[in-house]
């Protein structure tokens, strides 16, 4: 017969072993069970800001190209419109389905963080792309270009078209869109240069990437500021809405509109002269790079540490910078002279 004291000791020992086993198989948000997996055996969930946006359709094309080269099951799921709650629901679903990785273009960096953290605790790798998430809630962030370069390149177009003088306003997307807020910070910093002392930012507004709201904001700005000479729209939705507003109100010769454009939808704005130029990058390459980075992260080839390198297929070797950020390259300024070539390369297959 086993004595009661020995029975108690044995039970405690067994409990300790069980707890030790649980601890060894429960990953942290930085380690994750995905470290010893291969991309070919994985499901990868990519969550855009909206599936109705042609820009994200082009990014999706890049995901598909890379997944065909590397393998893996690609799940491309997102809200039709830009809804944070819908993004959170898709994160939760991907976590429950044990996706090896979730890649997200966050609408709200803070709001999505808790659900990302919960998914990470089950071993899912977290990747941010296009828009970052709260620090500590992802391993790597694939950025199109530096925030400074994107903000400055857009501001330079506007300032040049305004001859460095006059009132200007901003119609951005969501007020919680950290990436665009950083671009705006870069614009405001650049505007402090004495060269631009004749320019005055009169108001910054947020259209939530909604066409009607952005249009109404543009109309309100035009009516509130009769001397307005420029509208900065660092999102294609706001760019299109602002152009429509200045045309509808007959002030297209008075007010210049520029910012972030989408050649897939907005080529005519350039070829017709309604917009002098706008900024973007290759969305197909962004999707392609993000998938390659995600595969390297899943397979443990990178951890997100500064200085690490990985193979990015046709884009060559890429290096991880500070805070796990991977920069794709420099922003591209699109004009009437290069927009057709851009459509052929990056948008034709998605139209």
TrEMBL record:
Q: Name one Pfam family in it.
A: Peripla_BP_4
Protein keywords: Signal
Q: Where is the Periplasmic binding protein domain?
A: 45-301
- Indicate where this protein is primarily found: other
Q: Which PROSITE patterns does this entry report, sorted A to Z?
A: PROKAR_LIPOPROTEIN
Q: Where in the cell is it found?
A: Cell envelope
Q: Which InterPro entries match?
A: Bact_Solute-Bind_Prot2, Peripla_BP_I, SBP_2_dom
Q: What is this protein called?
A: Substrate-binding domain-containing protein
């Amino acid at each position: 017969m086993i004595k009661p004291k020995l029975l108690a000791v044995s039970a405690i020992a067994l409990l300790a072993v069980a707890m030790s086993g649980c601890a060894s198989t429960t990953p942290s948000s930085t380690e994750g069970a995905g470290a010893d997996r291969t991309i070919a055996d994985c499901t990868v969930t990519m969550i855009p800001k909206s599936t109705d946006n042609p820009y994200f359709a082009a990014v999706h094309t890049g995901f598909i190209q890379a997944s065909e080269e590397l393998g893996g099951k690609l799940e491309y799921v997102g809200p039709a419109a830009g809804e944070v709650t819908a993004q959170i629901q898709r994160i939760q679903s991907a976590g429950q389905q044990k996706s090896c990785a979730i890649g997200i273009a966050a609408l709200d960096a803070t709001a999505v963080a808790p659900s990302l953290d919960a998914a990470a605790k089950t071993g899912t790798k977290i990747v941010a792309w296009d828009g970052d998430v709260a620090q500590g809630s992802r391993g790597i962030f694939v950025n199109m270009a530096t925030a400074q370069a994107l903000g400055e390149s857009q501001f330079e177009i506007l300032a040049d078209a305004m001859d460095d003088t006059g009132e200007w306003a901003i119609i951005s997307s969501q007020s919680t869109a950290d990436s665009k807020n950083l671009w705006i910070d870069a614009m405001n910093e650049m505007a402090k240069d004495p060269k631009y002392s004749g320019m005055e930012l009169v108001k910054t507004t947020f259209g939530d990437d909604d066409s009607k709201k952005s249009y109404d904001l543009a109309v309100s700005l035009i009516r509130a500021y009769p001397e307005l000479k420029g509208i900065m729209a660092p999102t294609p939705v706001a760019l299109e809405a602002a152009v429509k507003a200045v045309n509808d109100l007959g002030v297209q010769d008075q007010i210049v509109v520029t910012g972030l454009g989408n050649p897939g939808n907005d080529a005519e704005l350039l070829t017709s002269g309604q917009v002098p130029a706008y900024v973007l990058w290759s969305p197909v390459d962004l999707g392609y790079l993000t998938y390659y980075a995600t595969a390297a992260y899943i397979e443990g080839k990178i951890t997100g540490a500064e200085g690490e390198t990985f193979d990015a297929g046709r884009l060559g070797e890429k290096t991880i910078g500070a805070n796990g950020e991977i920069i794709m390259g420099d922003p591209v300024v699109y004009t009437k002279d290069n927009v057709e070539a851009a459509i052929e390369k990056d948008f034709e297959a998605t139209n």
